[in-house]
Write a structure and sequence with these properties.
Layout: E1 4-9, E2 13-18, H1 34-41, H2 43-46, E3 62-68, H3 71-82, E4 87-95, E5 101-105, E6 108-110, E7 118-120, E8 128-139, E9 142-151, H4 158-165, E10 188-196, E11 202-206, H5 211-218
Parallel strand pairs: 3-10
Antiparallel strand pairs: 1-2, 2-3, 4-9, 4-10, 5-8, 6-7, 8-9, 10-11
């Protein structure tokens, strides 16, 4: 799979950059996945649950993906995620004029109308998103906002649901009301991960924006 690049690796973990259109894990998918790629290329991956993949990215989302290479590292990193000690930063282009900064604390659960969708729901699980405006952009006479997003929790489709609920759907995110004139996939990139590794070392890993997203911004 040429759409996966390794940007960091040591004896405990690996950080990949996943392109849009690539599914993360085998669960519920009959497509070729990141999990398949890991198992085909690395002996250690065969021994680990989900080939050591610690968290997921949606199929349409590009960016950084954290993978453990040992049982100890996998258990440790999962615990770090559970305790919300891993910093995850995303960049997104959304429709409309977003506030300079803010936080969204709205529970998320399955949509009662569409099984593929999630929605803000009183019966859902706690979800917490913070954001900061990077730049306001006008493309074709329409207003957009490029925002830096930090996830405090990790619910399915959390960023997409929260911003759509507030009337700022992600550009290209048809499932949640975003227009597709600029791109046919959600404009969302997992740009940065920061954590303390199982070895006690601080890691701060960043990824360039995907080329397809860069072209949109360059054409503003």
């Amino acid at each position: 799979m040429e759409k996966i690049d390794i940007v960091f690796e040591d004896k405990n973990m690996m950080v990949l950059v996943k392109s849009s259109g690539v599914v993360t894990t085998r669960e519920g998918s009959d497509e070729n996945t990141v999990e398949d790629w890991l198992m085909e290329n690395f002996k250690w991956a065969v021994k680990l649950k989900r080939a050591g993949i610690v968290h997921r990215l949606d199929k349409g989302t590009s960016g950084l993906l954290l993978v453990a290479k040992t049982e100890d590292s996998l258990a440790y990193l999962k615990q770090q995620f559970k305790k919300r000690l891993i910093y995850k930063e995303y960049w997104a282009l959304v429709e409309g004029d977003v506030s300079f900064e803010g936080e969204i604390r709205l529970p998320i659960g399955r949509s009662g109308y569409n099984f593929l969708r999630w929605a803000v729901s009183e019966l859902g699980k706690r979800a917490w998103t913070t954001f900061e405006l990077i730049e306001k952009i006008v493309i074709g006479g329409k207003k957009y906002s490029l925002v830096k997003i930090i996830l405090k929790t990790g619910r399915t489709h959390q960023i997409r649901v929260h911003f759509s609920h507030l009337g700022w759907p992600l550009v290209g995110d048809k499932l949640y009301g975003g227009k597709t004139e600029l791109t046919s996939r959600p404009f969302l990139h997992a740009k940065k991960i920061a954590l303390v590794g199982v070895d006690g070392v601080n890691y701060d890993i960043e990824s360039d924006m995907s080329d397809d997203l860069k072209l949109i911004l360059e054409g503003k």
